[in-house]
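Hey all, sorry for the wall of text incoming. These are the two entities for the joint prediction.
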Amino acid sequence: MSRGINLLGRKQQTAIAPVQTKLNKMRAFAMGSLFLVSASSIIIFVLITFSPLPAVQRQADTASATLAQSQQTIAKLLLLHDRTNASMDIIKKRTRFVQQIQLITGRLPAGVRVKEFSLSKDTISLTVTSSSLAPLDNFVNELVSSADQKKDFKKVALGGLEQTDSAFEMTMTVTPL
Amino acid sequence: MNNEPWLGHNTVQFWYYRFKDSVYYTWFLVFVSLLVSFIIIFQVIIPQLTSWFSITNEVIALREKISVMNQNINFVNNVDPALLNNQLQTAQSALPAEKDFGGVVSALSDAAILSGVSLSDYTFSVGEVASESAKISNVDVELVIEGTFDGTVRFLSEIEKKLPLAEIITAQGDNNSTTMKLKFYQKAYPKVVFHEDQPLQPLTDSQTALLRELSTWQRSAPAVPTSSSSSAVPLF
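and here's what came out:
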C-alpha cells in the first residue's frame, strides 16, 4: 500500500520537511526583527519628543534675561580687569630708576656727593665729586665689588678722574642688573 | 466552451491563494520584512539616533551654560556696587581712556610739591590723537625741574607713585636743575564682549593689592611742606 495516498496516515509519518522548518525560522526571525526595529523607532521617537531640551532652553533663556539686567556691572567688571592687567604690565615693565639710584647713593661715602647724573634705560652715568681721593676710591671699590658679585650692578665703567682747584671729580657709568 | 479547469482560474484571488500556499510566499515575507527593517534602520532609526545624541549633547551643553550663568548671576549679585565703582575709578585714574592732560599736570604738580622741587618748564607731545582701541598709548612730557639731586630723586620717586601711571624715560641734570622725559600712559576703552557661558572672574589677589596701592597713589590734596624754600614753590 502506498503511504502517499493514505489520507488517514499516522501523524509521525507526516514530519515537516527540514527546508520548511528553516523557512519558518527565517520568517519568525524576519518578523521579530521588523517588530524590534519598529519598536525601537517608536521608543526613540518618544524619547526625542519628551526630551528635556525645551525645558532646559527655557531655563537658559530665564538665566540669560536675569544676567542681562546686570549688564552694566559685568561691563564694569570686565573693564576693571582690563585696566588692572594693563596697569600691572606697565608697572612691571617700567625701569626702576629710583631703586637703582638709591642703590648707588646708598654706597656714597661721607664727603662724596653727586654733581651730575644722567639716567637712561640701560645705564646711569654719574659725576661724583669729593675733596679727597680716598672716599672716591672706596665708592668705586664698593660698586666694583657689587658688580663682581653680580649683586646690584652688571657693569661699572670709569669715565675719567679730574682734579679741579678744590676737589676731585670722577665720571662713571653704571649698568644695573 | 469554457476551457478553464476551475471557476475563477484567472482571477487575482486565485493567483493570491495559489501564491500564498506556495513556498515563495514565505520567502517573500522574509525578504519584505528584512527589507523594511533595513529601510527603517537606515531611514528612521539612524537619523533619529543622531538627532537624539545631538539633543543630548545640546542639553548637556545648555545645562553647563546655565550652571555658568547661575554662577555669574550669584557673583554679580554679591558684587558691592560702591566698591566696584571706587575700584573702577582708581583703575581709570591710573590708566585713563583719553589723554588726561589735567591729570598729568596735577601729578607733576603734586610730585613737585611733595619732593620740594619746582617745575620750570614742560612740553607735551600729544602723539596719536585717536588710538586704536584697547592699545596702550602715551603722552610724552619733557620737563625741567629745579632742585637738588636729592630733590630730583624724591621727585622721580613721587612721580612713579602718581596717577595716571608714568614712566621715566630719561633724566639728565646736576644739583640745580634736571631735564627729564616722562611717559604718561593711557588706554582706550576696549570693546567689551561678554559671552554668557564665560565665567566671570573675581579680581585676583595681585589685582586687588594693585588697586589698593593705586588708591593710595590717587591724588589727594597734598600738604605743602613747611620746610620748602621759596625756590621750591611749584608753578601750578
